[in-house]
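STRUCTURE:
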């Protein structure tokens, strides 16, 4: 795949790797199935952290397992979220995002941190992802930057750490 806009300044025009091709239902389903298999073999895991396309995959796994007890993850940390895809549409060969208006309530029932930047060209995906997650467990933080995990200023890093800590606490003690 070609690099995402803005990334070529750092890595050049060479092909880059991705979990899946975003326009291929088969590629997305294969990535979900591969991750599902890895979780089954290596899990359980306390939590999952995803960035962009990694959020899409993590959210699809959590949504797929929403009736499992225990869930594959007790919490999720979503940075600059990509939206999950509708698995039913993927099975029919269509690539369609899963949106809250397509569901009957939240599909993610574990505590979630949604950390995004208002300058991200895809910030609407991060905001839409929050609607797929149960309100009691959501922690939202706008770090003010773009499609990145900022390292400065230190106050922003501290804010992100506190958001993660809140979510882990919710997972551990249920508050």
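SEQUENCE:
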């Amino acid at each position: 795949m070609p690099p995402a806009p803005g990334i070529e300044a750092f890595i050049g025009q060479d092909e880059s790797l991705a979990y899946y091709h975003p326009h291929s239902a088969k590629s997305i389903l294969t990535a979900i199935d591969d991750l599902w298999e890895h979780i089954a073999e290596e899990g359980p895991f306390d939590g999952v952290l995803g960035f962009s396309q990694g959020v899409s995959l993590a959210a699809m796994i959590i949504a797929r397992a929403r009736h499992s007890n225990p869930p594959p993850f007790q919490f999720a940390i979503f940075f600059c979220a990509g939206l999950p895809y509708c698995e039913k549409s993927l099975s029919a060969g269509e690539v369609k995002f899963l949106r809250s208006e397509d569901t009957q309530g939240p599909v993610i029932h574990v505590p979630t941190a949604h950390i995004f930047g208002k300058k991200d060209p895809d910030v609407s995906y991060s905001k839409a992802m929050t609607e797929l997650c149960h309100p009691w467990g959501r922690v939202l933080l706008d770090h003010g930057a773009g499609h990145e995990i900022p390292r400065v200023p230190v106050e922003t890093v501290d804010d992100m750490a506190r958001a993660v800590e809140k979510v882990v606490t919710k997972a551990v003690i249920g508050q």
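REMARK: The mean pLDDT is 91.
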